[in-house]
Amino acid sequence: GNSVTQMEGPVTLSEEAFLTINCTYTATGYPSLFWYVQYPGEGLQLLLKATKADDKGSNKGFEATYRKETTSFHLEKGSVQVSDSAVYFCALSSGGGADGLTFGKGTHLIIQP
Amino acid sequence: EAQVTQNPRYLITVTGKKLTVTCSQNMNHEYMSWYRQDPGLGLRQIYYSMNVEVTDKGDVPEGYKVSRKEKRNFPLILESPSPNQTSLYFCASSWRSENSPLHFGNGTRLTVT
Questions:
Q1: Is B102 an 8 Å CB contact of chain A?
Q2: 3-class state of residue B83 by DSSP
Q3: What residues of chain A, 13 to 52, have a C-beta less than 8 Å from chain B?
Q4: pLDDT below 50 — which residues of chain B?
Q5: pLDDT in tens, B40-65
């Protein structure tokens, strides 16, 4: 079956540091890949997505590249801010409609000033 | 404004007292889903609905019921709540497409004593 593995954290960084949150997946076929972000007290919201191999999703300074050969979709940001503190979820959709969405367990990111 | 609205945000109840958490979306989405979020377990799908009068079990449906009589509403019903259903619950909706992102409500924190 489908699965998503990501580091759970918490990951603690200083402001302006470089961020990488690793995400690897197992899926049949050719899934679409997503990163969602959950700010304190809120629901999840889509951060970025990539729908085919070698696609790069980007938003708010975050980037992730769909790497089929390594089955990975690592999230990166060059210079994090305190406002980036949140929980980040990697997810995949392997077709058959939205019911096929599989989430990782989430990575709690803490940015210190 | 496009949104998914859940009510209530917080609910404290006692074992065995039936309750309903409401969910409504104003985006005309076909697909709606309920998740629960627990520490160390991430997001787990309870039930989902691909359209009106069509509902299916997710990964953890035991102890829950849903209905989809109208496209915009997807209530979650706990007929006889138990303490192991204490959790943070999220409703989500989307178009029926592999690439369509989920739109989440702000969550309902349920405590069953």
A1: yes
A2: helix
A3: 32, 34, 36, 41-46, 49, 51
A4: none
A5: 888 999 999 999 999 999 989 999 99
Q: Which residues pair with B82 in a beta bridge?
A: none
B88 part of contact set with chain A, CB < 8 Å? no
- A99 close to B (CB below 8 A): yes
| Closest residue in B to A42 (Cα–Cα) | B106
Nearest to A34 by CA among A96, A98, A90: A90
Cβ separation A99–B100 shorter than 8 A: no
Contacts of residue A41, Cβ cutoff 8 Å, sequence gap at least 6: B106, B107
pLDDT tens-digit profile of A19-75?
Answer: 999 999 998 888 899 999 999 988 999 999 999 999 999 999 999 999 999 999 999
Place of tokens 């945000």: B9
Pair type for strands B54-57 and B108-112: unpaired
CA distance B15 to chain A (A): 25
Q: What is the pLDDT of residue A93?
A: 85
Read off the amino acid at residue A101: L
Mark residue A99 as left, alpha or beta (left: phi above 0; alpha: psi -120 to 50; beta: remaining). alpha
Burial of B72 (0-12, 13-18, 19+ CB in 10 A): middle
Q: How far apart are CA A93 and CA A79, in angstroms?
A: 29
Q: Taking all residues of chain B, what is their mean pLDDT, rounded to a whole number?
A: 94
Whole-number pLDDT of residue B15: 97
Give CA–CA dist B15/A77, Å, rounded: 45
